[in-house]
Amino acid sequence: MNNSKWKRIVIKVGSALIAPHKQGCSSHYLLSIAQFIVRCRTQGIQVVLVSSGSVAAGSHLFPEHEKSNIAVKKAMAAAGQTEMMATWDKLFDFPSAQILLTHADLRDRERYVSVRETVFSLLDHGVLPIINENDTVTTDKLKVGDNDNLSAMVAAAADADALIICSDVDGLYNKNPHTHDDAKLLSWVADIDEDIYAMAGGATSDVGTGGMKTKIQAAEKAVSHGIDTFIINGFTELSFNMLLDGKNPGTHFQPFEKPMKEDVHWMTHTSKAQGEVIVEDNFEIQLDQESQQLTSDEIVAVKGDFSVGDTILVRKGDGTKLAKARSNYSSCLLSFIADQDDQRFASEFQEKTGPIISEKNIAVLEKS
């Protein structure tokens, strides 16, 4: 690995490091992380911190029998967020800033760009951005769900060179090291495929929401943007010392040699499809030939409710996902056009109003 070219990194810290005993925040494991951040900044490396822990930090303030209540969990997040920020802030002698996000902030292109600009401005002025999902206001429809995937989205938005995901084990093993003594650490992963996901297993902590699977998902998002990605043991100071020395302390995921363009990456990995358009099989051939405009002739069906500007999934009738794209039509209008028997009407209508999908707003997906 070569960390000499790193100009900006994102480090993700989980709830088990922030509040290991669910009795409020503890600086026990955070000191070495804070020192790592300080040393990075001293070397001219900008740092963005994605920190879980608000729910775990606020847990001790509420009765045990009420903690399964959704409203109480949101209250735990609200109470714990201030304690978590205060804990981080006291470990630094430079200013920090709080950014609370929902998936709605990231999947909307205008708001996504606004987040990027805010992060860049903070970094340019020497302020450490500390980012967390806004658990107080999130719903199932609006949330990312785990900060592993959030950290990858943030790393892409921040144009980071490296993403460091802290875990409670040294990295990705070929089997669960907590239950198998013969588990072997994978120090290098060139391609993330089904075999890699099979090694992930489930969550290993009862404090956080993510497990090894979400860390693999995050790595997949990050490497496609050309970001060096590491899963390391966040409980040991040695991990951070090795990173600073240019050594790999855990599992290093190799970034794509030809990263996705920023807007295509956002469409593929961050924007959420609000509906689906099922197309004729021949549209797949058009995509392969880089003729990527969609007309009503190729539409078989329209599913879901979406508005102009929303992201939609384009797929074949057999379920094959072809692309994600920004729709220039609402689902209501698109259904009306597609249902017209007179194809001349549809063609004339589109000549006046423009294509259903334009080539600049489409991301072709790997066949799945």
Automatic annotation (TrEMBL):
Pathway noted in the entry: Amino-acid biosynthesis; L-proline biosynthesis; L-glutamate 5-semialdehyde from L-glutamate: step 1/2
Top-level EC class as recorded in UniProt: transferase
Record field: catalytic activity: L-glutamate + ATP = L-glutamyl 5-phosphate + ADP
Annotated positions binding ATP: 12, 167-168, 209-215
GO terms for MF: glutamate 5-kinase activity
Keywords on record: Amino-acid biosynthesis, ATP-binding, Cytoplasm, Kinase, Nucleotide-binding, Proline biosynthesis, Transferase
Domain Aspartate/glutamate/uridylate kinase per the UniProt entry, residue ranges: 7-233
Family matches, as InterPro entries: AceGlu_kinase-like_sf, Asp/Glu/Uridylate_kinase, G5K_ProB, Glu/AcGlu_kinase, Glu_5kinase, Glu_5kinase/COase_Synthase, Glutamate_5-kinase_CS, PUA-like_sf
SUPFAM superfamilies: Carbamate kinase-like (SSF53633), PUA domain-like (SSF88697)
Entry's localization field: Cytoplasm
NCBIfam families per the UniProt record, alphabetical: proB
Name under which the protein is recorded: Glutamate 5-kinase
